[in-house]
Amino acid sequence: MDLNNFTTVEQMEAETARLRECAACSGAETWEDRKKAQTPSCKFGEDGVCCRICSMGPCRITPKAPRGICGADANAIAGRNYLRMIAGGTAAHSDHGREICHTLHSTKKDGHYQVKDEAKLLRLAKEWDIPTEGKDIYDIAHEVALAGMMEYGKPFGTQRFLNRATDERQKLWNDLGIAPRAIDREIATAMHMTHMGNTADAEALVMQGLRTGMADGWGGSMMGTEMTDILFGTPMPKDTEGDLGVLEKDMVNIIVHGHDPAMSEMIVVAAEDKDLLDYARSKGAKGINIAGLCCTANEVTMRHGVRMAGNFLQQENALLTGIVEMITVDVQCIFPSLGPLSECFHTKFITTSPIARIPGSTYVEFHPETAREQGRDLVRQAIDNFDKRDPAKICVPTRKQPARVGYSCEAILKELNGVTNSHVDERDTYKPLIDCIKAGVIRGAVAIVGCNNPKVRPDHSHIEIMKKLLANDIIVITTGCAAQAAAKAGLLRKEAKDLCGAGMKRVCELVGIPPILHMGSCVDISRMMLLATDIAKDWGIDIPQVPVVGCAPEWMSEKAVAIANYVVSTGIDTYLGIEPQVKGSVQMMELITEGTRKLTGAGYIINTNPDTLVQAMIDGIEAKRAALGI
Amino acid sequence: MRLFDRAFTGSDEMFALAEAAVTKTIDKLGADAPVAFGSTAYFLPCIYAYTGRKITKLSELKDVLEPVKGWLTRNYRLNDVFTSGIATVLAAEIIEACKYAENPTPYEEKYHGHMTDAEVRELGVPLVTQDIPGFVVIIDEAPTDAQAQVLIKGYQSRGIFVFLLKGAIDQAERCGIKMGFPVRIVPVGPGIEAVSHIISVVVRAAFIFGNVQPGDWEGFNKYSFERIFAFVNAFGPLENITVGCGAGAIAMGFPVITNDTVDVDVVPKSLIIQTNIDDLIETSLEARDIKIKVSNIDLPVACASAFEGEIIRKADMFCEADGSRKDCFELVRTKELHEVEDHKIELIGQDFDAMEVGCKINLAIIIDIAGKNMQSDFEPVFERKIHNYVNCLEGVMHTGQRDLIRIRVSKSSFEAGFRVKHFGELLYAKMKNDFSQVVDKCQVTLVTEPELVTKLRKEANEIYDKRDARLRSLTDESVECFYTCTLCQSFSPSHVCIVTPERLGLCGAVSWLDAKSTNELQPSGPCQVVTKTKVIDEAKGAYEDVNEAVSTYSHGALDKVTLYSIMEDPMTSCGCFECICGIEPMSNGVIIVNREYAGSTPLGMTFAELASMTGGGVQTPGFMGHGRHFIASKKFMKAEGGIARIVWMPKALKDSVAERLNISAKELYGIDNFTDRIADESISEDPDTLMAYLSEKGHPALEMEPMM
């Protein structure tokens, strides 16, 4: 085993430092500069006890002023702020899901968008009792899309996808009153409850937080994943590469960034067009290189093997290379700083969604009817920009790592079939994985998800936690920026088995997988919910009993809070490496850690030290094993 | 007790026995007494392998107890189970060594005990040739003697080397099974500790054949995991000490298959429960990914390449399946592993016995293949092989492919006992043997029931269409690489075909997909990857990479090839081309003539005369051999203007390519019914009438730039 084949956080940091040094002369500023300027953070904000919901305030809670003007105490204020974060996160994920439903609704046989996974469409139609017999596949697609969109605003009933959960969970959600109704309604309810003069009871706010989160994970996010698979294909394992070294000095580099793959899919398709390739060559480029950032990268890498330039805190670094002709963005996690930053270079910054309008960008609103031409047009503009590079500002990164990505639930089942014995085993179940866990070969599983956050050393927590888990025979599944951190470190390569304990190593060898399974973007955490659910079903136990936990070591966005809430509601303990902003309320801290555990069987475990956090996870998994008598 | 605890407990038991044995033996013989198994250069081989220690006397044996104990760690991790498992084997070897210290031949008569280096070396060649495809260690008694007999004989008949331990030996003896190293059924010893003699063989194989160094713990486990195809059949009730040894086996990569269901945790591909003893062999072989070559094919007639060219005349024919007269087809399909029952040969419909002499029959040959490495792109490659295989049968003739096959069976073969199922037996054996890398399971269905064949043929046609569509969707630009084909170098040593999606091999038999599959099936075979990154001129099909490949694989005879030109460095021919195209100077065009056409051409030459101008791996600008399907390709002499240059073809050839050629012409030039403008032998056989016809039809070649 050659450990030098893996990239360390130190090496990543050295690369960043080198880029920043090059960039300094261009007058470019990045998050590190702004983080300094923003330090120290506002303590009231950090503790969640600053209320600016009405204009009587802002009110801030101190020992001398324990209540706001209206009388709201720290619990009410922190609880309301917390619920609003969940509402924001759920809105973001779910609106992304809705947009994808609209794209599905726009599909046509010869249209710009088509149905790639008919089987999955038919399965979903069947699940939703939409008749398919003798119908055109596109009629079915439109009906399914419409049915999906109705989940956002239906006046009665709860989310359709809840039926996929274990019977125990469904009953529990109904009993607790956290089975989500229409997605938009839960968001509106959360906003309404937190309006001035409404709920001040922290427990009620936390309960609505769970329900709003559920509307994300078992509503909008799951919608996003399902519809994206139908549209662009269910991911299957693919080889790709990760880190800034995927940018090519001699090629036209186009970065796709954001979350919704509808636009980036068109760019990827356009970049393969022969006439555009010829055009690029005529301009002296060797080709067109598409690279992804953030979850758009995760989406297109899983389906096309498009390479991943990096995660959230690397978005500015990509531009600092001076060789990016164009960065096109859709929605979420896009730094407004890309505007001024792109002006320091020749880079064209293109915004495409009315959801994310950013100064300093060129706005090209994407529409399904014109998407293909728009994609081609953007690629052409990027090519035209190739010869405008400033040689003085070029700083080419070289580090990259191979990665194997694209482990949807369907793909995981297929891999597991590979280790079944046709004489004794069933196929298409998680039994091989369960058997490994029961026997102790694998101790359990951890889903590592979430963002980067300058509050901790970027990527360090992700990578160190992953390595420690692997060494302890715990299989890791990952999405989002955590997945990209793993890719950059080289942990998504099959060779990463050498970092594992004997159990995980043997499993990787026999199944032919890397020890960390890349499951997609942040909406794809819904895949993880289904994975945990189906493991529980195949095992014959409820989800909180399964030795599986979730972890967001470097989370930062409101989406992450929404996710944490549906994960906890699903019965999966969630380990956080960043403190939620409710510390100013003892009651809130108790509610989100132990309070929910009494209700859903799961809660947060918070620790900002990654070493302690990972040990807590290992202990938590072993405790679940002990409870099962395994 | 859970699995890990059982293994730990078993390890402790074995270690305690080893400690006691060493103490007892030293008490009896003294610490300086020698200890050796004899006839081995590897000391006590397991201990030497895993610790690097050269044990020659009892005091050293005592000293080794300490490191062995050090491996009996007790964290609940598989690593601890593995180290404990290996430690268990080492402890077992310590016990055995004590026996040999007291008596150099502790196992007389019934048991074999230690195996010599000579015996280990004897295994080398049969392991490489796969005459011995694997090893089984059978521990304890099968539920009944009859089952034991079937099991042991079953392994023996498959070439699997059998080691017996404990009760399994008594049972084999009761069944009257002949045992001994030469018959590859070795009764190793009566106690579980004798398992160390088997592991001793494994580690010495790693020393001798793998050059693994003493003390290289990882190296030994890796070698055995990757190269020694051994597995264990342990009959219940399993004792903990057996589980401890099993942990060692699994650490080395050897799966354990047991019929015990009590306190056994299943681990995929490692610890498998199979209570159906009748299915134990197949379960075990699949667990260790062992594929058995079929050595004896059950056939009443001979099968050899000598019969490949044999013609069956009508008078000698018993019956005939003729796809042009009655529905017939042959098809290879990819299936999931669970959908295929290995070696299932099924006949649906009547057998030859119920047929009359000279009759025409319906026949469908459907081969289902499942395998972890199987790809649907391999299907046509395997399907083409049916022709070769069936033709090798004595008294059987096969021509054509897909649903245009013709198979004749001679009267003499029928009388020799040849029946429909024998096609299945033959094809099963050949598929399993020739494509063992990808074929894990194979079943053959033969259908003679007329209505069913008709129905199935429609389904087969859909599959053929899909395959063709896939091939058509590929273009030279859309793929990452091309392939060489040097299949013909046995008789045309300097010829290299460059196979691209739009230009199949000139013999017409090797498409780009076929070449890709051949490359994957035989990585060092005739089809090698040719990259296409160093473009010289994409329009002409000139690439530096292609030139490099041509130079390498023609052994320097050629230095460049322009893929889409017949004037500038055209691709060479081996001699087995389907068609030749040659320049026709007056019209500025080319004529194409196919091998089957016997008449003359407007050039005044026949196919044979034209063929003599090219072939043999020589570049002759203006002349080029090619496959029939290349004619409609948009890359056909693209550098000289493409298919618009075609002025003459024999009528039969023209008709066969018309549909696709017309489509290409429409797409390229917007010309409808282009083939109507192409002359044939019914129109002209000389340049003047040809020119007159072309002028009358307004053939586009007349307007084009001169080629020379």
UniProtKB/TrEMBL annotation, chain A:
It is an enzyme of class 1 (oxidoreductase). [4Fe-4S] cluster 2 binds at C51, C54, C59, C70. Gene3D superfamilies: 1.20.1270.30, 3.40.50.2030. It catalyses: CO + 2 oxidized [2Fe-2S]-[ferredoxin] + H2O = 2 reduced [2Fe-2S]-[ferredoxin] + CO2 + 2 H(+). [Ni-4Fe-4S] cluster binds at H259, C295, C333, C451, C481, C522. One of its GO terms (biological process) is response to hydrogen peroxide. The keyword Kinase does not apply. InterPro entries: CO_DH_a-bundle, CODH, HCP/CODH, Prismane-like_a/b-sand, Prismane-like_sf. It comes from the Bacteria. Its cofactor is [4Fe-4S] cluster. [4Fe-4S] cluster 1 binds at C42, C50. Keywords: 4Fe-4S, Iron, Iron-sulfur, Metal-binding, Nickel, Oxidoreductase. The keyword Cytoplasm does not apply. Its EC number is 1.2.7.4. One of its GO terms (molecular function) is hydroxylamine reductase activity. PANTHER family: CARBON MONOXIDE DEHYDROGENASE, HYDROXYLAMINE REDUCTASE. This is Carbon monoxide dehydrogenase.
UniProtKB/TrEMBL annotation, chain B:
Its EC number is 2.3.1.169. It comes from the Bacteria. Gene3D superfamilies: 3.40.50.2030, Bifunctional carbon monoxide dehydrogenase/acetyl-coa synthase(codh/acs), Chain M, domain 3, Bifunctional carbon monoxide dehydrogenase/acetyl-coa synthase(codh/acs), Chain M, domain 5, Carbon monoxide dehydrogenase alpha subunit. Chain D, domain 4, Carbon monoxide dehydrogenase alpha subunit. Chain M, domain 1. GO terms for molecular function: 4 iron, 4 sulfur cluster binding; anaerobic carbon-monoxide dehydrogenase activity; CO-methylating acetyl-CoA synthase activity; metal ion binding. Residues 464-708 form the CO dehydrogenase/acetyl-CoA synthase complex beta subunit C-terminal domain. It holds the Pfam family CODH_A_N. The keyword Metal-binding applies. The keyword Transmembrane does not apply. Residues 20-100 form the Carbon monoxide dehydrogenase subunit alpha ,N-terminal domain. InterPro entries: ACS_CODH_B_C, CO_DH/Ac-CoA_synth_bsu, CO_DH/Ac-CoA_synth_bsu_3_sf, CODH_A_N, Prismane-like_a/b-sand, Prismane-like_sf. It is an enzyme of class 2 (transferase). GO terms for biological process: acetyl-CoA metabolic process. Keywords: 4Fe-4S, Iron, Iron-sulfur, Metal-binding, Nickel, Transferase. This is CO-methylating acetyl-CoA synthase. It comes from Sporobacter termitidis DSM 10068.
